[in-house]
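The records we work with from here on pair a chain with its fold. Each token is a code from a learned vocabulary of local backbone shapes. A record is reproduced here so that you can trace the correspondence yourselves:

_____
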Amino acid sequence: MKRMMLIVNPNAGRSGYRYYFGDAMKVLADGGYQISLFFTTRPGEATEFAAYYAKDYDTVACIGGDGTLSEVISGLMKVQGPPPIGYFPMGTTNDIASSLGLPKNDTVAAARRILSGEPHPFDVGGFGEDAYFAYVAAFGAFTEVSYATPQDQKRALGQLAYVLQGAAQLGKIEKIPARIEYDDGVFEGELVYGSMSNSTSVAGIVHFPESMVSLGDGMSELVLLKDPGRVDAYGELAASVISRRFDNENLIILHTRRAAFHFQKPVAWTRDGEEGGKFRDVTLCNHHAPVQLIF
């Protein structure tokens, strides 16, 4: 039998993993897996579990949201030749699951997909010298929503909680002077949002065409929203992004392996929907396919 390390975030997705959990474990056992369970009790513990124990297993899987998967990947970045990753998406947004076409909030279907799927190369974002992100690092308008929204609202309202919290921030969109050095050039100007990502879905709202994004090509998507200069233009800019019309003059989308961000004062970042700290200067990069995801 193959050995699986299964890391469980018991708070993700309104603790929905408990429904049919036994059935999902039976699917894996019948498929040839001997399973060891690791339950997290605090942020960052999934990273520690993966870093310390993954080398002893054939597969590392996790039950949780994008943040849980991000922690597991961060841990595996410390393991030489890490095992492939299986994912049970049980979060609020599930951006990575959307990109991979994985079943969401259904442990039995996810278990079957792990058995039938194949490992695929997956790029990992580097944030500064020793931090990582699985699919997006962002700053500016609405990026605080992911960690500022109270956890009980996330559980009770799901995606609506993000929308409500985002609407409350409309009155405090900040113009951020920035200089960004990327592979093919330099941008300098005022931004209301910026991100570096490796996903066809960001925040469950922005969806890039599959032809625009490849999850294992060594390139990330650099997205910059310039300050449109007037209030009504924010709506036009948002509408163009949501409707996948990327021809707005205030929207810049580039492909790059590296981007160095320089600000006049410390700017708050999020990494995979969680608080990422404040920085005046930070460099992001694409680590080409150091891990494999099963889908």
